[in-house]
Amino acid sequence: MGSRFGASQPVYRDASTAPREGAAERDSRREDADPLDSIRKQTIDQVLSELGSSREGLASEEAGSRQQTAGKNLIESAKKRSPLLAFLSNFTHLMAVLLWVAGSIAFLAGMPELGVAVWLVNIINGVFSFWQEHRASQATEALKKMLPAYATVIRDGQEQKILAEDLVPGDVMLLAEGDKISADARVIQSSDLQVNQSTLNGESTPSRKTADAVLEEGLSAAEIPNLVFAGTSVSEGNGRAVVFRIGMATEFGKIASLTQNMEAAESPLTRELNRLTKQVTVFAMCMGIAFFLLSMLVVKEPFASSFIFALGMVVAFIPEGLLPTVTLSLAMAVQRMSTRNALVKKLDSVEALGSTSVICTDKTGTLTQNEMTVNHLWTATREYEISGVGYEPQGTIEAEGRSWRAVDDADLELLLEGGLLCGNARLAAPETEGGRWEVYGDPTEACLIVSAAKGGIDRAELEKRMPRIKELPFESRRKRMTTVHALEHPVDGARRLAFVKGAPNEVVRLSTKVRRNGKTVELDEATRTRIMAANDTYAADGLRVLAVAYRPLDGIDADADIPASLSDYDPDTIERNLTFVGLEVMMDPPRPEVAAAVAECRRAGIRIVMITGDYGLTAASIARRLKIVEGDDVSVISGFELAHMDDEELKRRLAGQVVFARMAPEQKLRVVTALQEMGEIVAVTGDGVNDAPALKKADIGVAMGITGTDVAKEAADMILTDDNFASIVAAIEEGRAVYSNIRKFLLYILNSNAPEAVPSAVYLLSGGAVPLPLTTMQILTIDLGTDMLPALGLGTEPPEDAIMDQPPRDPHERLLNRHVLVKAFLWYGLMASIAAMAGYLVVNLLNGWVPGMPLFGVGDDTDPVYIQATTMTLAGIVFAQIGQVMNCRTERTSVLKIGLFSNRRILVGIVFEVALIVFLTMFPPLQAVFHTAPLGWQDYAFLCCIPPVVFVIEEARKAWLRRRARR
Fold it and tell me: Of 91, 117, 141, at which residue does a domain stop?
């Protein structure tokens, strides 16, 4: 093609991939010329010449030749992992491998039933995990669906409809309202052309496009007014644009490349479970070796018996129930979160939420309602406040301690009428009760309709009285719009009136008069200063301000130089000598529940970083309103500033209070990457295509369910069905509960390991003088039988009341840490060990044993008293675990406060384990397998004392901890 706009495809790098580029490399790269700079600064003729095109487009033969060089206008797909490999990966991670080995050991030890049970646990979890992955991200496919199938172009001098994939650089596209744009192009003709660029900048307000050259510096791609981009759509007007980039070279293709090549971050839970697996493996193997050596050297057992005994201990110390407990805990959290407007796509994402230390949130639609609302009106006479938010016309106009209607004040009436008439937006009432009002057109104009309705103005009646007969469309150069109306009743003696709406400084500059108390007076310098001071005050608060003025076009007050013919009306003749009426002040209001959610995040030690496509002043204003940032030490960083900032400076600024504005997609990704490199666990919210790379890179990506694009939803880990920031905070609470519940499970499982190991240690250290109080099969009965259901019940505990009063979990904190080990083995385990050995001795005592005599069963494992004693040891551990499962439900809170019987799954588990003990001791075939015997009423009386004693002791410890914390 010979064109520098289409000859080469730019290379976009994923900032997260290794090797990472250094600051010097990045600075050097940023100094390269922006590929958009040249084309936006050139005139139309220069651009067409550069691209080898013309206003009549390309010849078909030339287009075909260019396609051979440039290729198809397509979004390419990254090569995907085969479904078979994806399926097998769920059975080859560390915990799965450990369970395969544990099952094999069980077979070697002559316990095939145990081996089958362990393997089934693995298979069920693997299939469930694969199903979750199968429903996960298909971001690139969603990107493709957003591109239109056809485009209208000029070829061979004729208008033609072609496949969008056949567009080439140099094609001249025709753009009309409702069209989706298929490639990056430079506007060469514009008639009130407005483009919805929310896919690129996340902002729903349409961007006006011009064909003029743009020389202004410091603009992001989406801000350049003479360029249109693939994946966006025409919301109003029409125009023509010449294509300069296609396919993966477009801004849209750049996002696709970032998204599909982005490796999803490994969740904190996955990392921690892998680490835990290694710890458990080492611990179980060490225990197995220790017991093997003690059995061989101290008790003098044969090698085969010692080996089988050691293998049994290895399996006993492996938490076979960990995977199902984690899965159930996550699944229950997902279920609870769905009732709180959060849908989770990947189970382990739930825990990642609980670890979140930073939330990178967009503004529009998440923190705010995405519904522009007029909240103040200003005239030369008074200032008004308007209640009610959104597009529903419910609210009142208040000033001087009373409510006002339009008919109460002529200046107010004219201001509302002018704002309503000088616009093209339409509002549609919801079709169902409780539905959303729909906006057709510019949201800014829509909120002016609502403000007029709150003042009691009927639009249909007003348009009948003052029909529009001429429009001078908004232009970015003029920064204003004008409509001409025929009047049923004269205003200032005129039956033809022009309403002007636009930027306050422009409207005031063109005004020579002002409305005050229903009369037209000269606009003096003092009033002009008052108007601009009011405008500056509103703007400093991040509010958007529009001025309304009018001009009589006939009658006694009309200027003599106004043309008589409508066809001769133009901005130069109409938009001067205006009469200023007032200001309409608007904002996208914060959601009412967000402030409380932000405060809860602060209490929970979670930072919030706003990253928006909106302007810095507006973003900072909203951030201050919601107390996301406070004080004067706040940095507002624009996309242009970030582009010239190295990584070290970015991290330094991120350590303080910061708001990011006018961000491009790759810049949002860069901020997320920098935070992760700083050791933060990052959650990212988003709704547009521009958010997809950051959503995928984040530890937890959160997409909006109502306003979110399919691309954002596919790239995210979680979807908010109400688009509400407060729902993220609720989800974080559930995520913290998941991690807490997994730790509760570990505490419960490990505390049974101590009473399982103590009887074996007593037997080995006594050199066999104390008969083995607990057999290997009885140990496995506890691990895979009685412990399993209560442990699973712990995985469903709801969040504790104070869980959001704690800081985020330290990423370096281990799931299995010293606190858990000490509590499990030296506190809970000690109590259970005492109960177990006490049960063993009680049977001996009840059968006539006195200290100094050999215990029953020494040298004879068929002794009925010995068998009953081992049964009592097993039952003692199980009944101790009944008390311990209640103790494990809370860290410090009294279980009585949350309800002793509030967790039905735990109660079912307790009933099951008691029934299992009774069944194993009463059913003769199982007695032989598990080395058990029936227990008497005295035995059960002793056992029933164990749970309350264990429970009361722990409740006393928790009460002491609470008192100490209060002091």
Answer: 141
pTM for this one? 0.69
Rg, C-alpha atoms of the chain: 37
CATH code assigned at 825: 1.20.1110.10
CATH of the domain at 675: 3.40.50.1000
State the CATH number of the domain containing residue 536. Answer: 3.40.1110.10
Query: The dihedral of CA 625, 630, 631, 636: what is its sign?
Result: negative
Residue 403: inside a domain: yes
Q: Average the pLDDT over each of 339-343, 651-655, 863-867 and give the range with the smallest value.
A: 339-343
SS3 384: strand
642 & 715 share domain: yes
Report d(CA 337, CA 340) in Å as an integer. Answer: 5
Report yes or no on 419 lying in a domain.
yes
pLDDT at position 762 over 70: yes
Residue 207 and residue 158 in contact, taking contact as beta carbons nearer than 8 Å: no
CB 506 within 8 A of CB 475: no
Number of domains in the chain: 5
Domain of residue 409, residue span: 373-587
Q: Look at residue 136 and tell me whether its pLDDT is greater than 90.
A: no
Query: H/E element holding 682?
Result: strand 682-686
Neighbours of 918 (CB within 10 A): 14
What's the mean per-residue pLDDT of the chain? 82
**Shared-domain flag, residues 551 and 537:** yes
State yes or no: is 362 an active-site residue.
Answer: yes
C-alpha 387: how far from its chain's center? 31
How far apart are the C-alpha atoms of 277 and 204, rounded to whole Å?
48
Q: Which residue type sits at 685? A: T
CA-nearest of 75, 62, 514 to 255 is: 75
Structure tokens at 822: 């000490």
- For residue range 794-816, list pLDDT tens digits in order: 878 888 777 888 888 777 777 77
Helical H segments across 466-578, by residue range = 504-509, 525-540, 571-574
Query: Tokens standing for 867?
Result: 């068998």
Residue from 348, 362, 409, 717 carrying the catalytic annotation: 362
The two structure tokens encoding residue 384: 């008004």
Same domain for 103 and 212, yes or no, is no
